[in-house]
Design a protein that fits this description.
Structural class: mainly alpha
Number of strands: 0
CATH topology of the largest domain: Endonuclease Iii, domain 2
Largest sheet: none
Number of domains: 2
Radius of gyration: 19 Å
CATH superfamily of the largest domain: Helix-hairpin-Helix base-excision DNA repair enzymes (C-terminal)
Mean pLDDT: 86
CATH class of the largest domain: Mainly Alpha
Order of helices and strands: HHHHHHHHHHHHH
Distance between the termini: 15 Å
Strand content: under 5%
Oligomer: single chain
Helix content: 55-70%
Length: 247
């Protein structure tokens, strides 16, 4: 990163990186601008839809388990354990009855595998005992499952049940929503509402995947690559913080 960019990002850190720490009084962008940005990013990341969750081919059980496992873990790592895990535990009943050490052995390459093994076993057990082995197809039902919060529930509702009820806000989506100018808060619930107000419902399910792809590829938390970003002209952070310092 050039010296000007380093200085800019030093300033950005002091401003809270638009993460709600300073709540800069900038207006949230217009819907037409947000839609244009999404179109640019969608064109930039045509393969963003090939996430482990989508590769579950819509199987609700696999979707729930893969989403829980994907937290703070790369797609590649999740894909490596998918085959061994589901070949041994193909349904909620078998995984719910599994020994935790056996599951840990399969997913040990993932971050936080001790906690994740417990979560997916508990989730599978509840699906098997409380829901007859079928993953709930309502937000209320999904939120009763261990390890499932609103972010995971949104993903499952869209990818497994084909329902757009909200937008999954993970760490990448939260960071980019603030940097780009989609939202001015660090509260994920408010960010979700801001995004839902900006984007048409048909885009809610894919928006998360596209923003995650951009966050991983270019808009890194510590070393964003603004020089090759396709949306700098529309990015609030670049226009108001990075560019003025570089000039």
């Amino acid at each position: 990163m050039a010296r000007g960019s380093r200085v800019a990002w030093s300033i950005l850190e002091r401003l809270g990186r638009f993460d709600g720490g300073s709540n800069p009084p900038y207006p949230i962008m217009q819907r037409r601008d947000a839609v244009r940005i999404y179109a640019l990013l969608s064109k930039e990341y045509p393969d963003s839809r090939d996430s482990p969750v989508k590769l579950a081919c819509g199987t609700p059980f696999e979707t729930v388990i893969l989403t829980i496992l994907s937290a703070q873990t790369t797609d590649r790592a999740v894909l490596k354990v998918r085959g061994p895990l589901f070949s041994r535990y193909p349904d909620a009943t078998s995984l719910g009855a599994a020994e935790i050490t056996a599951v840990e052995e399969i997913i040990h390459s993932l971050g936080y595998y001790h906690a994740k093994a417990r979560h997916i076993i508990d989730a599978a057990r509840m699906i098997a005992t409380e829901y007859g082995g079928a993953v709930p197809d309502t937000m209320e039902g999904l939120l009763t499952i261990p390890g499932v919060g609103r972010k995971t529930a949104n993903i499952v509702m869209y990818h497994a049940h084909g329902q757009n009820l909200g937008i999954a806000v993970d760490t990448h989506v939260r960071r980019l929503a603030q940097r780009i100018g989609f939202s001015d808060t660090d509260n994920v619930s408010v960010i979700e509402k801001d995004l839902m107000a900006l984007f048409p419902e048909r885009d809610w399910g894919e928006l998360t995947d596209v923003l995650i792809a951009h966050g991983r590829t270019i808009c890194d938390a510590k070393k964003p690559r603004c020089g090759i970003c396709p949306i700098t002209a529309d990015c609030r952070c670049y226009r108001t913080v990075v560019k003025p310092v570089m000039n």
